[in-house]
Design a protein that fits this description.
By secondary structure, the chain is mainly alpha-helical. The chain has helices at 5-25, 33-70. Helix 1 (5-25) packs across helix 2. The longest helix has 38 residues, at 33-70.
């Protein structure tokens, strides 16, 4: 694992979900057990990444904005403020 792996997780996950979705929607038969297992794994990753993203904005960006305001600097623009 390289240091840039964290940067590629979300795009790679999106590509895996897109691939899985296309194969399921174009299939003549029900999804295999393996495809269902992959779907479960990818759904868990989406939930994890969404939680990490929400925490970043709700906690880290909010604290960063408070620090900027204390220094009389403009805060970051965020829909969550």
């Amino acid at each position: 694992t390289g240091s840039g792996d964290g940067v590629r997780w979300a795009p790679k996950l999106a590509e895996e979900l897109r691939y899985l979705s296309q194969n399921i929607s174009n299939a003549d038969f029900r999804p295999t057990n393996q495809a269902r297992e992959v779907q479960t794994i990818l759904n868990e990753r989406v939930i994890q990444y969404r939680g990490e993203f929400n925490r970043l904005f709700e906690e880290d960006v909010a604290q960063f904005n408070r620090n900027l305001l204390e220094r009389n600097l403009a805060p970051l623009i965020s829909d969550l403020d």
